[in-house]
Design brief:
The protein is α+β, with helices and mostly antiparallel strands. It has 11 helices and 9 strands. Helix 5 runs antiparallel to helix 7, helix 7 runs antiparallel to helix 8 and helix 9 packs antiparallel against helix 11. It is globular.
Length: about 375
Amino acid sequence: MTAISVPRPAWMTEDLVLLEEQARRFIADEFVPHLEKWHEKGMYDRDVWTRSGAAGLLCASMPEEYGGSGGTFGHEAVINREFSLAGFDTFGAPLHSGIVAPYILHYGTEEQKKRWLPKLATGELVGAIAMTEPGTGSDLQAVKTGARKSGNQYVINGSKTFITNGQTANLVIVVSKTDPAQGAKGTSLIVVETDEAEGFERGRNLQKIGLEAADTSELFFNDVKVPTANLIGNDEGRGFYQLMEQLPQERLIIAVHSIAMIERALAVTIDYVKERKTFGRPIIDNQAVKFKLAECKTEATVARIFVNHCIERHLQRKLDAATASMAKYWITDLQGKIVDECLQLHGGYGYMDEYPIARMYKDARVARIFGGANEIMKILIARTL
């Protein structure tokens, strides 16, 4: 489903075209019929993860030796786009595959990679990263959750909030202070395997104004003991730098999701204005409607080309933090604008929850906040002036 057409980008190889077709068919057949049930339930069934893993939709960029598909970020981008085009916006797989797993791949020990990555690829393990705390927001340097070393264990105390996959995850990367006196240099990433962690508690599945089926939770760590072998990498104090190195990919993932929602919003709106009649003729016959959709399509096409450019740069290991920040802030801003325009063209029906555009309107709003608020993105960009 798309309302715009751009030339196939150079990064979109033949195997990715095949993956796109396979993912689209699988999601349509296996998941789309159940979306309404999961929306009402406020969470996906647990077997969605294992079914996604069996279909090769998890950890596609992980090497085959660690259970992945041996692909690249291009594979992740194709899969994430198909999730979004199908209205599967609330599934936490993009974070699981494109954010959690890469921390282990890039910084973990060989033993950690062999232990955790294959189970993330199958969906046996569901991943989350616990960054945000009450009162810290985007300020990762202000994290207060502590990890005190005691013999061959860390003892973790603290709380996290707004954690994607929080109710389901059984592998949580916890952003912790191993040396509070060192500020950012005292931050480490430590894995908590929740199935066997005494003192670990899940709070409520947070009630949101959108993304109702997304699993977003509070997490509490009360003297949670984990082996020192669960430190990501070999050295303490590397966590903040690991986070900074991987955040451009997180922001690009958000941009990929946002442009896909823009395309879906345009597609359903164009269909609607062609079918819906007012004063005896289709709404699209109104010149004002045509002009508005022409503007939206133009902006969406520019955004799609920019995202393709960023993906290509990232595959070449040339995507810098400022450009990723541009993609994240500008495309999520545009997402809010275009989805709002599309809802307006639906008239009163656009405000009805059973219409896809109404759900997109609610779901789009948080994109300007998570992954670093757009104001933070502008600060990062401004540093390059």
